[in-house]
Design a protein that fits this description.
- The chain is an alpha/beta fold and 239 residues long.
- It folds into 2 domains: 67 residues, no CATH class; 116 residues, Nucleotidyltransferase, domain 5 (2-Layer Sandwich), CATH 3.30.420.
- The protein has 9 helices and 7 strands; from the N terminus they run H-H-H-H-H-H-E-E-E-H-E-H-E-H-E-E.
- A 5-stranded mixed sheet has the order 3-2-1-4-5. The chain has a two-stranded antiparallel ribbon with strand order 6-7.
Length: 239
């Protein structure tokens, strides 16, 4: 049973701007987004499948989701979902998920309690392509403990991840959090940004930062005792 104190999905989706003119509107914008989210979670992958899933819902469930007793048709669902501001929708959904996963003492939708581990990672989305036909590439920040995506943004491949780093994290409370990222984000301005935001960071150092890499390689690592050793096997290698 859902805790009444937890944020409701429809309330979060109501923050997404409605791009439609008022004339001829029959269904609430947040309600169409809500059934779209639920249908996708239930396995729908096309506009037709979302419409069919919505049509099959009992009338009482449709009403609970904010719809009229009559379900919206496929063309209505298609027009609404194609016109939605993707960044605004992603922000609303991420804030809702973060609020549900945050401890009771957290105060913000994406509040970061002391020691929260936040990973930054860029991935090409499987099965999704942009207008140019290339696979969609996303930069995401997610909570390592819960797996909840706290925010994500579309980027133009690996090189654009660097410029998207700060804007992605601007909407997340980083106070006391530990942010991890791969070597691409081992940048002076990223470290300065995280320090100003009150976060700690663990960044991989490779040869894209030659001076820093050389300085670290010159340290007397053999004389430093190991505090903890983790051994795992992946991709046929033991590390």
């Amino acid at each position: 049973m859902r805790d009444r104190s937890e944020p409701h999905l429809l309330a979060a989706l109501a923050a997404v701007p409605d791009p439609r003119s008022r004339r001829g509107v029959r269904h609430r914008f947040a309600a169409i987004l809500g059934v779209g989210v639920c249908a996708v979670l239930a396995g729908a992958r096309t506009f037709a499948a979302i419409a069919e899933w919505t049509q099959d819902l009992p009338v009482g469930v449709r009403v609970r989701l904010g719809l009229r007793r009559r379900a919206p048709c496929e063309s209505t669902i298609r027009r609404v979902l194609q016109a939605v501001d993707a960044d605004a929708l992603d922000g609303a959904a991420s804030a809702w998920l973060a609020a549900r996963s945050a401890p009771v003492e957290a105060t913000g939708p994406a509040a970061a309690p002391q020691g929260r581990m936040i990973s930054i990672d860029g991935k090409s989305a499987r099965g999704a392509r942009g207008p140019d036909g290339r696979p969609a590439h996303l930069l995401a920040a997610f909570d390592q403990a819960s797996g909840v995506v706290l925010g994500q943004t579309s980027v133009d491949g690996k090189t654009d991840e660097i410029t998207a780093f700060a804007p992605l994290l601007d909407r997340i409370d980083l106070t006391g959090a530990i942010v991890t990222a791969d070597a691409l984000h081992t940048q002076h301005r990223h470290a300065d940004y995280l320090h100003v935001r009150g976060a700690h960071y663990v960044l991989t150092v490779k040869r894209n930062q030659p001076s820093l890499h050389h300085q670290l390689a010159s340290l007397p690592w053999a004389q430093i005792p190991a505090v903890d050793i983790t051994q795992d096997k992946g991709h046929g290698r033991v590390c």
